[in-house]
Amino acid sequence: MSKLLDYLNALDTNAALIHAHKSDPVRAAKEYGLLVEEQLAVAGCDKQKISAFLDLPFRDFDAIDSVETLFSQSEKDAVTA
């Protein structure tokens, strides 16, 4: 199973990860072991990119919808630095 799918599943059930994701989603995703591209997709709540990474048809990802987060461009740039 992909780490990305594991991460999304954990966001639906793991309170510590949910808190970490709300506080700093890029750091939480990086520490979980996601690839940079996956980190950006999760941080940007880009369901279409996530769907492509998982090779699944586009669908709603409840975990992403339930975690409201705003990102500045500098936070997104920090992932690629």
Descriptive account of the structure:
The chain has 81 residues and is mainly α. It has one domain. The chain is 68% helix and 0% strand.
Task: Summarize this entry quickly.
This protein has helices at 3-11, 15-23, 25-32, 36-43, 47-54, 62-66, 73-80.
Q: Would you spell out the secondary-structure blueprint of this structure?
A:
Blueprint: H1 3-11, H2 15-23, H3 25-32, H4 36-43, H5 47-54, H6 62-66, H7 73-80
Strand content: under 5%
The domain tally reads 1
Q: What's the helical proportion of residues? A: 55-70%
Total helical segments: 7
Uncertain regions spanning at least 5 consecutive residues = none
Mean pLDDT: 79
User: For the terminal residues, how far apart are their CA atoms?
Assistant: 28 Å
Descriptors:
81 residues, mainly alpha, 7 helices, globular
